[in-house]
């Protein structure tokens, strides 16, 4: 009996040791396959990032954009530019005129439009028409005048450049209602109304280019510029949807994303690697039509200026546009800008004795 029990004990001990060995072997296999999986996933992730970066470099520095003449013969067609009297809008008007297009210039100040038309005539000897209108007024009579001009011309290119922002960074709860109304009316309503007037003719002719100015303020949520940020985010969604609608009619829609450019709106006068002049920026826009640049993953969108494109790609690839750290940095930066702007205004008021 003792012999049988001893044999039985050895049997169970053997089974337990065998089970432990199998369990240990299974654990090793699981760890092995996890390591292999992580290695493969890591390799594919790095490989995908390298492919994306290569696409970015090709888009920015090698591959050309579509020729503007694709959208209409320069000597026979027109380009409409809103917000044409200053900065980026003025530069669009000048470069499109240099390319041979007649230009319809629309902005608020008639004297500035007259001066720009004279400059275009003397430099490029192309035709111009002007219409002074305040987009912030959202006046039906102004839009009726614009419609009459648009209907009489072959508009091949529309540049939706008119825009408004906050005078200084400001918390939303402290934003004047008039400023909120102005930003939404100019950035959103004006862009929609002008595009609706022009796009109908482009659809009928089955060709055209609609360029709308976006902003990193809409791409990355921007505290203390909340209304402006939201208005530009709206233009992103609207442009992408509109681009899909008009593509079957050979009408190309492109939202152009940008960081800062030296202009009256940005209040920056000195250019740098990250802040180009309007001339350099517009040259990149018109030279890269149809190329995404840094706006990978967004259809009907382009970030053509090289430093802006690399910045956008880097944020999207490694941080994420809605990341808490980025959002916190944005809030801190604009709080600091607001503080300095208020201090400057206080000094000015002090000198005036106010």
UniProtKB/TrEMBL annotation:
Q: Per its UniProt record, what PROSITE patterns does this chain match? A: ADH_SHORT (PS00061)
GO MF entry, a single one: ketoreductase activity
- GO cellular component labels: endoplasmic reticulum membrane
For this entry, list what GO says about its biological process.
fatty acid elongation; sphingolipid biosynthetic process
- Protein's membrane topology: Single-pass membrane protein
Residues that coordinate or bind substrate: 215
Question: Which domain of life does the protein's organism represent?
Answer: Eukaryota
Subcellular location(s) of the protein:
Endoplasmic reticulum membrane
Main localisation: endoplasmic reticulum
Q: Which UniProt keywords apply?
A: Endoplasmic reticulum, Fatty acid biosynthesis, Fatty acid metabolism, Lipid biosynthesis, Lipid metabolism, Membrane, NADP, Oxidoreductase, Transmembrane, Transmembrane helix
Q: Tell me which positions the record assigns to the signal sequence.
A: none
The answer to keyword Lipid metabolism applying to this record is yes
**PANTHER family given for it?**
HYDROXYSTEROID DEHYDROGENASE-LIKE PROTEIN 1, VERY-LONG-CHAIN 3-OXOOACYL-COA REDUCTASE
Q: Which family does it belong to?
A: Belongs to the short-chain dehydrogenases/reductases (SDR) family.
Residues crossing the lipid bilayer are 30-51, 209-228, 310-330
Q: In which pathway does it act?
A: Lipid metabolism; fatty acid biosynthesis
What chemistry does it catalyse, as a reaction equation? Answer: a very-long-chain (3R)-3-hydroxyacyl-CoA + NADP(+) = a very-long-chain 3-oxoacyl-CoA + NADPH + H(+)
InterPro entries referenced in this protein's UniProt entry, alphabetically: 3_ketoreductase_fungal, NAD(P)-bd_dom_sf, Sc_DH/Rdtase_CS, SDR_fam
- Per its database record, what is this protein's job? Component of the microsomal membrane bound fatty acid elongation system, which produces the 26-carbon very long-chain fatty acids (VLCFA) from palmitate. Catalyzes the reduction of the 3-ketoacyl-CoA intermediate that is formed in each cycle of fatty acid elongation. VLCFAs serve as precursors for ceramide and sphingolipids.
The active site lies at: 228
| Name the UniProt record assigns to this protein | Very-long-chain 3-oxoacyl-CoA reductase
Uppermost EC category: oxidoreductase
The record ties this protein, via Pfam families, to:
adh_short
**What are the leading ranks of the lineage?**
Eukaryota, Fungi, Dikarya, Ascomycota, Pezizomycotina
Q: What is its EC number?
A: 1.1.1.330
